[in-house]
Write a structure and sequence with these properties.
Two copies of one chain form a homodimer.
Chain A: H1 2-27, H2 39-56, E1 59-64, E2 71-76, E3 84-90, E4 110-112, E5 115-117, H3 121-142, E6 148-154, H4 164-170, E7 179-182, E8 194-199, E9 201-210, E10 216-217, H5 228-237, H6 260-269, H7 273-280, H8 293-296, E11 302-311, E12 320-321, E13 324-333, H9 339-353, E14 359-368, E15 371-373, H10 378-391, E16 396-400, H11 405-414, E17 418-421, E18 436-438, H12 439-458, E19 475-476
Parallel strand pairs in A: 3-6, 3-7, 7-17, 8-16
Antiparallel strand pairs in A: 1-2, 2-6, 4-5, 5-18, 8-15, 8-17, 9-13, 9-14, 10-12, 11-13, 15-19
Helix pairs in contact in A: 1-3, 1-12, 3-12, 4-11, 10-12
């Protein structure tokens, strides 16, 4: 099987410049799932992606409609008796605003130095594309794949995958596989690959406070009528105590306390405070005492105020007490917190701290459970070996503070093992302005994917037989 | 002189429907001084207003450019030996946003019931126009005015009159008068006129907090990097203590403590808490204990958060820690607070409570001193008599929580007595959506103005000789 890899790698080397220009074409679609004005762009992006899969020789290529944005599916299953790998990725992207902070337009990808800049370059178009180009290299150089492959690419990851559960439940049989590979995460640096073994969960709230029915003159009535904007500030101030801990009663009840051994392991392999601050471009850290920054972002929960709006949004001064105020809050949860319970605790607390005379309304979005993955699973070990070949260094095992909702869904619905091998870098500015993808990682990622697919095709060990779909295998909450 | 009034009143009665349609034309100009996209509308409005003054027979009509929006001037000074009245008003208006809350478009005035709806209908186009129509009635029915009159109408009142001081200083001689009449305030109800004898001062701040240089993923870094939006909420929460008092150290040092007599007078003539809440359409009051709502809005200072903005302003969820957060604050000041000192105290306090790692920037706008007017001045007494004739009821003397920056400027620069006779109602929703002007007040206001101008032309008492411009006469801080 060695020659399969070798030929595929030669093909990759030869075609790499072309791969980059195809990735640019992928990034040019403003496939922003959160903004309905981009619904047409999302659909066109899905169709373009399906065309790519068709072109490289994948089969049963389809764009499936869902209640929201479509799912792109493809497979190549000719190797009876060999394992099946399901590759997951997402072709939707975060909003690009504020546009003024971009050095070049977000949907006009450009290369500066070794990096390709554009919204979605790293999250997740570039990382998803790495596997497509590995499949192309294998199919074009060998005519057959060394393993059975299914591809599942969704268009709603950035809005919490609202329609994926229904799709998975309806297609459980078609999606059956031995393991799932997802590249939607970061590695510490371009010479240090990493396998993610834990992700935080997430839940989002819109908290809206309403005061009197109409705007009131702040001269005539200022000081005598309560202001929903002031009150909302005071309520948000009550979400944390002075020590940076979340002040919602009961919030930490289910947060797992890790033993000395795990914390020592994290200290050994995880990024230092200095490294995290440097990658973030931040002058100093913040948050819960007694935890390193790596711990604060992985084994401790967090609340981020992601947006706030209230009062007159135009230029100059408008001297009025506003009628409404809105805050958007993004919670990150850790084992063994339960999003539904957090939803209840938050609503109870808000009801308690809302001042009389004002009305609070809460909307909940995209709840997602925290997940963990067994570092010793055979598929994970295979990924580690492929990484070593692709990047020339053994991977470290890291926790990630982000959320990939599909991982929890795969656990609950498909009961499949997941391998998280990322090709992004901490400085990729995912979700921010000037997002980029490091092109050497694109190349090494393709090699890693080729090595992984080739090696896993040869494994016959217990972890890779077709799983019993009735129970979870190794992804545990 | 009685016949002058009688003829002018007959003319008003006869022409009133036409006056209303002219007022509608005035309101149709979206003369929003805070929004630069309306600079052209402001200029056209000023020219239209000058045309009105010309048409009714005023002289030396001019539109004077300033560093910002123009000043409209006119005079009619044929009565040597008689007093001179300077009429001040403003033709600029507050922003109309949010437009969705208007029952009919803000710049397409319509009559519903006895009210004329539109932005600026009450503040201040309708009230200003009352005097123009009184002048028209007097000039058309009698060919001469019973008194010398100068008109000064500015286009920057709603942004704090930034260019009026320079204009007044440059034209001190031309603006010389015996008293100034301003109608830019409210009376308790359509049957109860009121003379304003105190106004709060004002100072506005934009407080901007900046965090790390770029937006950071709230999953990857939430809990480890401080958030300027959260910090801004916490800082705004520290502007008041739990009892509703402002927590800026030294803020109350110069706030005058009024004696039992003045507070008893205020209790007797001022609106009750119930009346204030009813007019505001609010369910309950808020603020400093031990003070009535009328006192809280007149003899006590206030801070209103008028706007806030930060993070992703589009639809849906964007999971990022924002880089900036902005709040707009409107302070109302009372005797003997000094805006410059408050500016210093606020800046010192913000510097103290800004968390490490975040940077605060403060911009100050439109400082204006609180003012008081002598209730016993002859011009004020004359206005009281005119009100009684125009509205059929003796006026009460009230404090107003709002700010009319020009009153302080007239005190400091022109050293002239000011009479504040309002024709607005508490339910006019000035600065809010669905602003309106009560048309019976328009009619009675014109009569009041005719009576005032006629009567004051007959007075020869001490208060009405040309003042010594070197010192203040009766407007004291």
């Amino acid at each position: 099987m060695l020659n399969i890899s070798t030929d595929a790698l030669a093909y990759t080397q030869h075609r790499f410049a072309h791969f980059v220009s195809e990735l640019k074409a992928f990034i040019r679609f403003p496939s922003v799932s959160a903004q309905s004005q981009h619904n047409g762009d999302i659909r066109r992006c899905a169709e373009w992606l399906a065309g790519q899969l068709q072109k490289i020789g994948m089969e049963r290529v389809a764009v499936f409609p869902t209640g929201g944005h479509p799912v792109v599916y493809a497979e190549h299953c000719h190797e009876a008796g060999k394992p099946t790998v399901l590759i997951y990725g997402h072709y939707d992207v975060q909003p690009a605003e504020p546009l003024i902070e971009w050095r070049s337009p977000p949907f006009e990808p450009v290369i500066r130095g070794d990096d390709l800049y554009g919204r979605g370059a790293s999250d997740d178009k570039g990382q998803l594309f790495t596997h497509i180009k590995a499949l192309e290299a294998l199919l074009r150089s060998g005519r057959e794949l060394p393993v059975n492959v299914k591809c599942l690419f969704e268009g709603e990851e950035e809005i919490g995958s609202p329609n994926l559960p229904a799709f998975m439940i309806a297609n459980r049989q078609s999606l059956a596989a031995d393991c799932v590979v997802i590249s939607d995460s970061q590695i510490p640096d371009a010479r240090q690959p990493a396998i993610t073994y834990a992700l935080r969960g997430s839940i989002n709230f819109e908290l809206e406070l309403t005061g009197q029915k109409r705007e009131l003159h702040s001269g005539v009535l200022g000081g005598a009528i309560h202001n929903p904007l002031q009150a909302l500030c005071e309520m948000i101030a009550q979400m944390h105590d002075k020590a940076g801990r979340i002040a919602i009663p009961g919030f930490y009840n289910r947060v797992r306390r890790w033993d000395v051994k795990e914390r020592a392991y994290m200290r050994r392999v995880g990024p230092s405070d200095e490294k995290i601050l440097q990658d973030a471009g931040a002058a100093m850290g913040w948050g819960e005492r007694d935890y390193s920054l790596y711990e604060r972002t992985t084994i401790r929960p967090a609340i981020t105020v992601t947006a706030m709006q209230g009062g007159y949004q135009g230029g100059g001064v408008k001297a009025a007490i506003p009628t409404h105020a809105l805050a958007k809050l993004n919670f990150r949860l850790v084992p063994d917190q339960d999003p539904q319970e957090i939803d209840r605790l938050f609503r109870t607390y808000v009801a308690k701290i809302t001042p009389p005379g004002l009305w609070a309304r809460i909307r909940t979005f995209a709840p997602s459970r925290p997940v963990m993955i067994d570092r010793n699973h055979p598929a994970v070990m295979t990924a580690a070996r492929a990484y070593r070949q692709g990047f020339g260094a053994a991977p470290v095992f890291l926790r990630n503070g982000g959320t990939i909702p599909v991982v929890g869904l795969i656990q609950e619905i498909l009961h499949l093992p997941v391998v998280l091998i990322g090709f992004g870098l901490p400085g990729d500015a995912i979700h921010g302005a000037n997002e980029k993808f490091h092109l050497p990682n694109f190349f090494h990622g393709i090699e890693t994917s080729i090595r992984f697919l080739t090696t896993i095709g040869q494994r016959q060990d217990a972890g890779l037989v077709r799983p019993d779909n009735s129970q979870p295998i190794f992804i545990t909450q």
